[in-house]
Amino acid sequence: MTFDPAVLRERHSAVMARIAAAAERAGRRPDAVTLVAVTKTWPAELVAAAYEAGMRHFGENRAEELAEKRPRVESLLGAASSDITWHLIGTLQSRKTRPAAEHADVFHALEREKIARRLSGELAAANRRLPCFVEVNLSGEPTKSGLDCSRWEVDATEREGLRKLVIDTSELPGLTVVGLMTMAPWDVEPAVIRDVFSRTRKLAEWLASELPGRAPLQLSMGMTDDYEIAVEEGATHVRVGRALFGERA
Ligand SMILES: *Cc1c(COP(=O)(O)O)cnc(C)c1O
Q1: Ligand 1 in reach of 39 Cβ (< 6 A)
Q2: Cα(165)–Cα(153) distance, integer angstroms
Q3: Contact 19, 235 (CB under 8 A)
Q4: Are residues 47 and 58 in contact, defined by beta-carbon separation less than 8 angstroms?
Q5: In 121-145, which positions are buried (b, 16+ CB within 10 angstroms) versus exposed (e)?
Q6: Of 242, 177, 175, residue with least CA distance to 216
Q7: Residue 83: CB atoms within 10 Å
Q8: Rounded to whole angstroms, how far apart are CA atoms 159 and 170?
Q9: Is the distance from the beta carbon of residue 40 to the nearest atom of ligand 1 less than 6 Å?
Q10: What is the 8-class DSSP label of residue 94?
């Protein structure tokens, strides 16, 4: 399999230009948004070509796939690979916390304290740290992962559940909560997607005001079909696969 860095460079510039335009429409700085190139299902050779094309943040949704791919990419690229950041973006099962702790640089889908505790133990053993996003479900779709925050504006129990997960996680060695991650519902009007993203931003603002330090939280939201809306609504990280690499096999 070969992947043409020239084609990837073109797609990368096109996505970066759309991110910049969306940021400007919202009065935000384009460099406030990190593009995470989602390489799940694609081989290490594609990641190496994407690196040559200028990409530096890569996203995988399964811990085992990340654990296999990262060392392969590192051997293809050699020392250059040290400026890559690897994002684990998918839900993690408790028996997969070791590969996650050993190979992820950022985790986007924390949703349970049990996972946080196991990750913390594995991180201590590996002598690593892992910034995390807590995944929240704003749409109320039962098939979506994430902590249920679908009625957070009116439901104090949902807010308290999130606050407790964030505080308990941040007390664990090796873990820090840096923000919230969400997925938009499928097959709905852009206005509904925008509403989910804007409510997620407000939830992050509320949460930041409840935490010691009150530092602003980051927002991981937006994929191929909705990343421009996400940037307009405050995303600091967009997770884009198909717009860069085409349909997955
Ligand atoms: C696959 C995936 C993406 C990227 O999806 P595209 O539609 O290819 O842009 C983003 N986030 C998560 C959690 C994913 O699993």
Answers
A1: no
A2: 18
A3: no
A4: yes
A5: ebbeeeeeebbbbbbbbbbeeeebe
A6: 177
A7: 9
A8: 17
A9: yes
A10: G
Pairing of strands 85-88, 106-110: parallel
Read off the tokens for 77.
């690229």
**Ligand 1 atom at minimal distance to the Cα of residue 240:** 9
**pLDDT tens digits, 169-228:** 999 999 999 999 999 998 899 999 999 999 999 999 999 999 988 889 999 999 999 999
Q: Give dist(CA 30, CA 26) in Å, integer.
A: 10
Q: Residue type at 13?
A: S
Q: Is 223 in the pocket of ligand 1 (CB under 6 A)?
A: yes
The residues, ordered by sequence, that sit 6+ positions from 62 with a Cβ below 8 Å of its Cβ are 40, 90, 96
Q: Are 23 and 229 in contact (CB under 8 A)?
A: no
The SS3 call for residue 18 is helix
pLDDT confidence bin for 1, thresholds 50/70/90: very low
Orientation angle between helical segments 5-25 and 44-52, nearest 10 degrees: 70
Judge if the beta carbon of residue 224 lies within 6 A of ligand 1.
yes
Cβ atoms of 61 and 55 closer than 8 Å: no
Contacts of 235 (CB under 8 A, 6+ apart): 33, 197, 219, 220, 221, 222, 227
pLDDT one-digit tens code per residue, 21-38: 999 999 999 999 999 999
